[in-house]
Structure formats: C-alpha cells, structure tokens
Amino acid sequence: MFGVYASNTPTASLTYLGLFALQHRGQESAGIASSNGETITVIKDLGLVSQVFDERRLSPLQGHLTIGHVRYSTTGDNVWENSQPIYREGGACGFALAHNGNITNVRRLMESHNLNLGKATSDTDILAEVIGQEYEEAPDARGLERAIEKKIPQVEGAFSTLVMDDSRLIGVRDPRGFRPLCLGRIEKGWVLASETCALDILDAAFVREIAPGEMIVIDAQGVHSYQIFPPTDPHLCVFEFVYFARPDSQLYGINVYQARSRMGEALATQAAVEADLVMPVPESGVPAAQGFSKRSGIPYGEGLVKNRYVGRTFIAPTQELRDRSIRMKLNPLVENVRGKRLVVVDDSIVRGSTTRRIVALLRASGAKEVHLRISSPPYRWPCYFGMDTGRRGELVAASLSVEEIQQYVGADTLAYLEKDRMLEATSATEQGFCTACLDGNYPLDVSEAIKKDGLEF
Known about the structure:
This protein is of the alpha+beta class. It has 18 helices and 23 strands.
C-alpha cells in the first residue's frame, strides 16, 4: 500500500512510483484512488502497475490525496471485483480503502453485520462494509475516524490499512503489527507506505514506523496519532525479514539486506560443507548466499540467471502457474556449475516443487554435488496473517523430515537455519515476531480460519 497527502502536488503520479517500488508485494492487480477535495476517483484493474497505468489512465486522478495498492490474493479470487482500493458510499462523501493482511473472523463479522457482498469474496470487502455501515450513521466532520475507531476493534487478524475520504488520509495497523506500515515526509506533505523502500523513490524522509494498534490521521492540520487498541506484544511476521520485504527496506530500524546476510553467515557456521561455489536462488537468496560465502570462505558466484520480467513465483496464485514460472524465470549458467560442488542458498522451502525443479536443472547442467542451505527453519504451518501458503497438507515440511525432504528434492545434503539463529540474525529479537508458520504457535485464535480452510468464504 502507498498513500500521499500533499498540497499542490501530483499525488497520483507519486503513488504510481510508490507502487512500482512495492510491486514485489503483489502482482495480480493494481489500483489508485484520488481525491480533489470533492470527488474520489478510483482506477484499478488486473495486472502489474505498468500494465494498469499509463499517462492516459493517470490523468483523471487529480488531487491532493491518494492511496494505492498492489494485490497478492490470500483470500478471494483474482477477479476485478477484489482489486483494491475498494470504494464505498457513506457519510457526506464516500471513502476508499486498501488493506494488507488477512482478517481471521470474517464469518462472525458477516453474520453480525448482515453482509452479502455478491461477487466480491475478499476479507477487504468485509472490512470496508463494516466501517461503511458505521460511517453512514456518523456523517460529521470526524465521522470516518469515529467509524474506524468503533469498528476496527471488532476485527481480528492482520490488517495494515489505508483509508481516505475527500479530505484526509488514515493509516491503521492491527494491534500485533503483523504487516509493516511506515510514515514518511515530503516537501509539501506526508506519505504512508508498506515499506521504507517506497519512500526512497520519492526522496521522502523516513519519520517512523506506525506502531501496532495505532491510527494515524493526516489532514490539513498535519499528522494526528491515536492508539485505538490496548497495548499487546508485537508480532511482526518474521518472513518479512526472511523473504517478503525488499532487501533495501528497514524493519524495526534494521536493514533487511544486512539481516539476511547475517542469516547466511549463521547458516555457514551451523551447517558447514566442503564445496567449490556458493550460489543463490535469485533474488531472495542473494544476501544469505553472500553471507554464507563470507563466513565459509567458499567463492560466491551465479549459477542461475533470472529473467527479470517474470514475477515472484512464491506469490503466483496457483501451483500450476508456480511450476510453469520456474523454467521461465530461471536458467542455469552451465559453464559455472558444470563439475562443481555447489552450495545452493535459498530463503525457504514451502511446497517443495520449486526447489525440486531447481536441483534437477543444476544436475542436468552437470553439477557434481548440490548442497541445499535454507536461511530459515522448516515451514510447517499455514499462515493466516497475509501469506498464501495453502493448507498444511501442501507444506512439504509438515509431513516429511529433513532427510525425507532432501530425498524428495534430490539434494546431496540439506540444512535449515535454526530458529534461534535466524531470530538473532535480525538483531531485533526484543521487538517481537510471529513465527507461527515455523512452530505452530499462533498469537491469536485462528480456529475460524482453520475451520473455513484458510479463510475461504
């Protein structure tokens, strides 16, 4: 998500640039909502930012206030109706809403608010309708803020959220802070973004992270902060550090690239092996591979060339597309791997099919040995807070031991980074993480989500 409030500034164009910087977080749809103080205009469609927007489609988005979104579907189909931002009528003016995360009590919210949403099937629609019902009852100057303050505490799960009406930009983060959200400053206004890397593209000054449970309201008078949830322990998703966030972003004040490099160093200490070359699975395996090489003394090199026009296979919406994307995305450098003992470093193994294909590619290219090193522990439990990892039966580590996974993917050896070493490498162990996907210790009740087979409703 990306939002801008700035006077005499082409905020839609700035949001377009911000969404480019956040494209790694979602590749299924893109959208921008803009207000000129009287009217909210929303343009969104399926596809990448560059496919959805050009000069012609940006030109109607005139105003001092915008929010934008790129979608990675974790609930609901990949259809236009589920693209964001979502617009809802209410109060003197409607509002637009964008959301990052997963809501885990959607059934109870739908029943308690008598919701029937037609073609839309995402939890974001439920969030917008719940707020919209209250907004209609409170159409005063602070009606939208009051509606959010009253209704958001009824919502459970992960929800970093941007909301806008005709005159204010509002950012809200759930009380555990599963997904990131930060505040930046530009010359004539303010920016809210999912990651700090999106601030850099505008030369915006990073101000701070939005605190878990905090609501930020930006209007003509400036920035106002409200703590709308009781304090609780923060649980930032640890996979933001391991995989999801861009390496040039900062989380908990820590550079993500440096954290991933330290994970690679820790992995080299924990699981040393004799080899000729350390190579990453690009792109997310690069920092950890460089750290592994630094600590082990084994030369670092490239063994796979990435087609940069193919998106992230992990967030492709179906397994068939993930499988087909592998060969399109990665091609072996035969001259670099032939006859070599390889240490292949990746951030995770989720379903196992991608890793199996990569090992097969390297062996077909003449690799003498393939030693897999993974810079996180085995991924054993489904995520209900904003990552689409499927049911537990789809997770290879849920049913197979490390030795069995090694045999399944065809590696000579396989080692995962231990959980304590991974957390230590973040340099933020005191800040608090959600590690439920690794240990099954969910920080809130997910029984409804589990019952509904991963939030299908």
